[in-house]
Design brief:
Number of strands: 9
CATH class: Alpha Beta
Shape: globular
Structural class: alpha/beta
Largest sheet: 8 strands, parallel, barrel
Helix content: 40-55%
Number of domains: 1
CATH architecture: Alpha-Beta Barrel
Distance between the termini: 8 Å
Order of helices and strands: EHEHEHEHHEHEHEHHHEHEH
Radius of gyration: 19 Å
Strand order of the largest sheet: 1-2-3-4-5-6-7-9
């Protein structure tokens, strides 16, 4: 099993953005010491609670402070940007940290239409241009065509398309790029997505299929401890889905709110559990092994958006002890 981390850089209530960034870079070093193979950064905008808005910059900062762990983006909001500019940024990172760059791109707006407009410099909606932009980006990174992205590195960075089902998987396969399935967003079509990716893969930037899956994981001392710590993530996700404060609440506040949820909110929290693996080491291993077998995927990115930073470190430690 290969393990990495996807970090949305969730900001705890009471912490500044600067403190969150510093703490994140400490976590990258810790992950490398534990044996994690990669550390990815998300891209979110117009939010109080998620500090990672420029994954390319966080990738550079993380790589500069570590020795061998790969750094990635999960993912750059490609429809809002020039494929050529994104290729140049990824190539620049490859020139600085050869063989350590895993560039993930996605189709999201990044936070609603008002954000999309500003990211795209008020150009018309280009969400429908994503397939063409992904093809162009793969071509630039594969050194195809007369116009090349600079710097012209000797090696090629890895490129991954993020997705939630068969359509995105088939697109990635046709272009010969990697694929990342977002189980942590919408787990319904995972098996079908991976089958479609492997079935339709054609060599391109990558010579053979390379796929990852991404899931929320909280690994406690035992099931009871994990469930206790997970309350802050449950409430955080509930608030994010309602468009409320996206900072992570402390555990005490989270449990107070959990006890006061209405029936609809309880149903939402229960439904969201399908996107997560929560439990002690035995439970986490059993569930992660189950999805690995179901998806035929041995490469996972783990998220953990609970409040307590030390407990988050220990959670990643426990998972590393199971597999690394």
């Amino acid at each position: 099993m290969r393990l990495g981390i996807l970090d949305q850089m969730p900001r705890q209530k009471g912490m500044t953005a600067e403190e969150t960034a510093a703490s994140t870079l400490e976590m990258v070093r810790h992950a490398e010491n534990l044996g994690y193979g990669s550390y990815w950064f998300a891209e979110h905008h117009a939010t109080r609670g998620m500090v990672s808005s420029s994954p390319e910059i966080m990738m550079a900062a993380a790589a500069a402070r570590t020795e061998s762990i790969k750094v990635g983006s999960g993912g750059i909001l490609l429809p809002q940007y020039s494929a050529y500019k994104v290729a140049a940024q990824i190539s620049q990172l490859e020139s600085l940290y050869p063989g350590r760059i895993e560039a993930g791109v996605g189709r999201s707006t990044g936070g609603g239409e008002f954000v999309r407009k500003r990211l795209a410099d008020f150009k018309p909606d280009q969400m429908g241009d994503y397939p063409e932009k992904l093809e162009a980006l793969a071509g630039y990174l594969n050194k195809e065509g007369k116009i090349r992205a600079a710097p012209r590195t000797e090696g090629k960075p890895e490129l991954y398309a993020l997705g939630l089902g068969e359509n995105s998987a088939e697109m990635a396969a046709a272009l010969g790029v990697g694929y990342v399935f977002g189980h942590f967003i919408k787990p319904d079509r995972g098996k079908e997505a991976f089958e479609a990716y492997r079935r339709n893969f054609r060599p391109g930037l990558l010579g053979s299929p390379k796929a990852k899956a991404c899931v929320f994981v909280i690994c406690g001392e035992d099931d009871e401890h994990a469930e206790y710590m997970a309350a802050s993530q449950h409430i955080w996700l509930l608030d994010v889905e309602k468009g409320l404060d996206s900072r992570v609440p402390d555990v005490t506040t989270a449990h107070e709110r959990m006890s006061a949820l209405n029936e609809r909110e309880k149903e939402t929290v229960e439904k969201n559990r399908e996107r997560m693996i929560i439990g002690g080491p035995g439970t986490v291993k059993r569930k992660l092994d189950h999805f690995s077998a179901l998806y035929q995927c041995q490469d996972w990115l783990l998220l953990s958006n609970m409040y307590d930073r030390e407990e988050k470190r220990k959670s990643f430690e426990r998972v590393s002890q199971l597999y690394l």
